Amino acid sequence: MVARKKHYRPPGKKKEGNAARYVTRSQAIKQLQVTLGFFRRLSILKGIFPREPKKKFKGNNHTYYHVKDVAFLQHEPLLDKFRDIRAYQKKIKKAEAKKNADLATLLRTREPTYKLDRLVRERYPKFVDALRDLDDCLTMVHLFAALPAVERAKIDVELIHNCRRLSHEWQAYVSRTYKLRKVFISVKGIYYQAEIEGQKITWLTPHAMQQVLPDDVNYSVMLTFLEFYETLLGFVNFRLYHSVNVKYPPILDPQLEALASDLYALSRYIVSNSRTSTLEPKAASSSTSEQLEAQKKEMQADESDLRLAQLQHQLPSNEPGALMHLMEDAGCENEDDHDTKECRRLFKNMKFFLGREVPRESLLFVIPAFGGVVSWDGEAAPYKEADQSITHQIVDRPTQGHKYLSREYVQPQWIYDCINARIILPTEAYMVGRIPPPHLSPFVDNDAEGYIPDYAETIKRLQAAAKNEVLPMPGVGKEDLDDPQNLLVEGYISRAEANEAVKTKKKMATLEKQYHEELQRELQGAVMKKSKQGSEEDAKASEESVPDPKQIAEDIDTMSKLGMSRKKRGLLEAIEKRKERNTARISKLKERKKKLKSSEN
After folding, report:
1. Cα 349 from Cα 372, distance rounded (Å)
2. What is the pLDDT of residue 11?
3. Which label site among 252, 265, 374, 583 has the fewest CB atoms less than 10 Å from its CB?
C-alpha cells in the first residue's frame, strides 16, 4: 500500500483552519490601512472585540480578530470619515506652522463632524436590547459627571455638563415612574438597580467627593466608550420620555443654566408639556384644524408663562432634588406592576428634611422614587426646616442646634435599609449618635450563601409581621409550626381550626403508616424469595456486600471526571475549591458569632 504524501501548500495559496478564520491585530491594521488608535476607536464604536481561537497559530502573545469582523469594519462609512478628519487636521497644523492664525481659525470652524446615531440603531435594533446593555453605559456616564475637567486627559467642561444632564434626565425618569428597586452603599460608590420593561439595570455612581485621576489609566479608550454611550443614553431617554407623553429634549433658559437652575427649569418644562399632552384627547371630537390651532395656542401660552417666570426669577434656583418634580403629571398612576405599586407606597404621607452633611443627591433621587416628599436647606427648597409637618429629618451629626419634638431624627442608612426591606423599619437603632445595624447588600442571596446574618433574620421577621405571616420563633423549627397544638397555644389559630387540623394530621399519619407497612411486606417477600434460592450464609454475605451509597456517589464522580476534558476538569475543580472556601468562611463567621455572644454574656 502506497503511503499518501503530505499535502504541500505553496506560499500565497488559500489558508485553512484557524489561520483562515482569524487574523492578528497587526494584520487587521495593515488590511484596513489605519493606525492603531483609529482601529481601536472604530472597533469600540462598532462593538467588535477580540476573539479567542482554539489554537493560536501565531502564538499566545497576539490579539486575534475574526476575518468577518475585519471585513465588517472595512465597509464602514466612518472609516472614510476618520480619514477625512485626519487629513483636515493636517491642514490646520500646516496653517499653524506657517503662523497663519486667520486660516487656522477658519479651518477649525469648518472641521468635518460625524454622528453615531446610525451605529446605535445598527447595534440595537430593538429597545429591549439597548436596555439590556445599559449597565456599563450608565456607570460610565455617572462617573464622568462627577469628574473634574482635566486638560491633559482631554476631559473638557462641556463633556462633564452633558454627562450630568443625561444622568439627571435618567434619574428623573426612574424616580418619577417609581422604577427603582435596590440601593446599596459600598466603598466603591452607590449601587442602584432599576427595572424597566422587565429588564433589571444595575449601575454604580461615585460618592460626592473630590475625584483624583490616576496616571495609569488610558483615558482615550474611556472617552471613546463615553462618546458612544452618550448617544445611546440620549436615544434611551428620548424613548422613555415619549413613553410617558413628555417631549424630549427639553428647552432650557440660558440664564437659569448660568445660575445652575437648569434641572428645575427642565422639570417645569416637562410638567407643562405633560399637561398639554393630557388635554389632547379631550379635543378629539373637534375638527383637525381647530385642534392644531388650540394646541399651538396652549403651547405658546405655557412656554411664554414659563419663560416669564424664569426671567423674573420666580422659579427657585436648581438643586439636585429639583429633578424629583420632573414627571409629576406624566401618567404614572396606571402601572399594573405589583413592585411599582409597592415602591410607590413605601414613604407615602412622609415628609423628609435633609441635613447639610448627608449625601443629598442620592437621597433626593431615592426618597421620591418610593413615594416620599423631600426638602433640603437651600433657596430652591419646597419647604423650610421649621415646617411642622416634617415627619423625619435625616442627619449625620450627634449635635443639633435646634431639635423639633414633632419629628424623628435618623441616620441616612435608615432610608436605604427601608428601601431594601420594602418596609418601614423601627428607628430606634438608627437614632443619631448610635452605631447603626450592619448595612446588608440586597444583591446577595443569604440562603444560597449558606449564612444568614442576625439582622437579616430580624428584617425577615419584621416583613412577616407586616404581611401578617407566621414565621418560626428563634430556636423553633418549621416542624413545630406544623403542630396545631403549638399554634393554638401561641394564639395563631382558633380551637375549632386546631381540632380540624388534628383530625387531618391523624388521617395523614394513618395513611402514611399503612403505606410503610405495605412497603415492608413487599421487601420481606423479596427477601424470602432470595433465601429460598440460597442458604442463610449467602444471604448474610449478600447483606454485608451491599455497597455504600456514599462510595457509589464518589465512584460516579471520579468516572465523570475521567471522561471530562482537561479544561472542564479544571473548571469543576475551581468550583469545588470555591465551595470549600465558602464553607470555611461561613464556619469562621459562625465561630466569631459564638465568641461575641459568649463575651457579651
Report:
1. 7
2. 63
3. 583
